[in-house]
Amino acid sequence: MRRSLPLWSILNAILIAVLAVAGMAVPAAAEPSPSRLWSVPLSGVLRVCTTGDYPPFTVRDAGGNYRGVDISLATELATMLHAVPQWVPTTWTTLTQDFLAHCDIAVGGISDTASRRAVADVSVATVTDGKTPVTRRSSGDAYSSIDEIDRPEVRVVVNPGGTNENFARTHFPQAQIMVWPDNLTIYDQLSHGKADVFVTDSIEGLYRQREYPDLQVLHPDKPFDSAAKVYLLPRGDTAFNGVVNAWLQVQISNGRTTALLGDWLS
Asked: What angle, rounded to 10 degrees, do the helices at 238-253 and 256-265 form?
C-alpha cells in the first residue's frame, strides 16, 4: 500500500519551489512550527482582512461579494497555499487591530506607513502610487497645489482613519476638513457640490472618475507624494512571509499585477 507524504513534507516542498522560482535563497529544512505556512494549509482557510471600499483594489458589492485587483491576487495566493480565502471585513480606522486579532494577511490598496510597520511586517510593493486632488471639472485647476487647497474657504472631504485623512490633516490645516464615513459614496459629496476637493491615491481617482464624468483627477502622473501599496503580514513569521513575498514577486515579474490593474482601469 502506497503511503502518502506527510503534510510537513508537502508544505516544505511548496516553500522550496516558490522560493526557487522567485530566485530567492532556499532555507534549510526546519521542523514544523506555528508559522502560518503550515497552519493555513492545515485549516484550509486564508483569513484576509480587507475594507471592500477601495476600488480598484478591493470592492464589496451589495451581495457581500468581493472583487478587485488585490482580491484576485489574494484568491490566487490562497490557492497556492492549498486554502480558500475567508474575507474579514474591516475599516481603515480598525485595519491594524482587526488584522492582528483576526487575519493572516490584509490587502486592498494598503499604503506602506511607519505606523503599520510598527505592528506588522509588510510585503513587497505591488504598485507605487501617490496622493492627488479630485475635483469637479467646472473648478478647472483651482485646486492643483497644496497651497491652493490649504485655504479657509476650501472644503476638503476625507474618509476616516486612513492615509487620506492623515494627509489632509497634515497638509491642509487651514482648510475645512469634512469627514465622510463611506469611501464608496464620498465622490457624491464632490459631485453634488457639498465639498470642493478630495485628495486620494491617483489610481483610485482615475478609476472612480469613470463613474463620475463631472469629476476630474488633477495631475495623476505627478502626485503630491509617493507610497508603496503592500499587504500586511504577521510580524516575524519568516517562513510564511517569505513565501508570500516570493509568490508576489513572481506575479509582478510575469506581469500579472499590471494586467489586473489594467483590466480595472481600461
From this structure: 60
